[in-house]
Amino acid sequence: MKLNRMSSNGKKVLLIEGIIRTVIIALCLAAALIINYIWLHWQEGTAFKIICAIAVILVGILIIIDCILRPWLMYRQHGYHLHS
Questions:
Q1: Buried-most residue among 48, 66, 77, 80 (CB within 10 A)?
Q2: How far is the C-alpha of 8 from the C-alpha of 14, rounded, in Å?
Q3: Confidence bin at 84 (pLDDT 50/70/90)
Q4: So what's the pLDDT on residue 20?
Q5: Can you give the pTM of this predicted structure?
Q6: Closest by alpha carbon to 11, among 81, 77, 59?
Q7: What are the strands, taking DSSP E only, across the chain?
Q8: Which of 84, 76, 83, 81 lies closest to 8 in space, CA to CA?
Q9: Which bin fits 27, alpha (ψ -120 to 50), beta or left (φ > 0)?
Q10: Across residues 58-75, what is the average pLDDT?
């Protein structure tokens, strides 16, 4: 049984999906940090800088996983069979 591959346009769709998801999560993190900095003042000084660094690292990891690895793995592993 031969499995057909995903269309190469599917990789583009998965990449766009990953970019949109990453931007939404990055905007939520940025909004939370800005609100904390301007209004709430829950964390100040060194703790706030560490939280900002962690947020940047998390977004970087998300970009690698969601925008690079996931489309490549889905394209490589996804197959389907059509009955005729």
A1: 66
A2: 10
A3: low
A4: 97
A5: 0.78
A6: 77
A7: 4-5, 79-80
A8: 76
A9: alpha
A10: 92
Contacts of 52 (CB under 8 A, 6+ apart): 33
The two three-digit tokens of residue 2, written as one number: 């031969």
- One-letter amino acid identity for 30? A
Structure token digits, residue 23:
């931007």
Encoding tokens for residue 31?
A: 């909004």
Return the number of other C-beta atoms located less than 10 Å from residue 53's C-beta. Answer: 10
Do you know the residue count of the chain? 84
Question: Two tokens at 45?
Answer: 């000084």
Residues 13, 9: Cα–Cα separation, whole Å:
6
The gap between the terminal CA atoms of the chain, to the nearest Å, is: 13
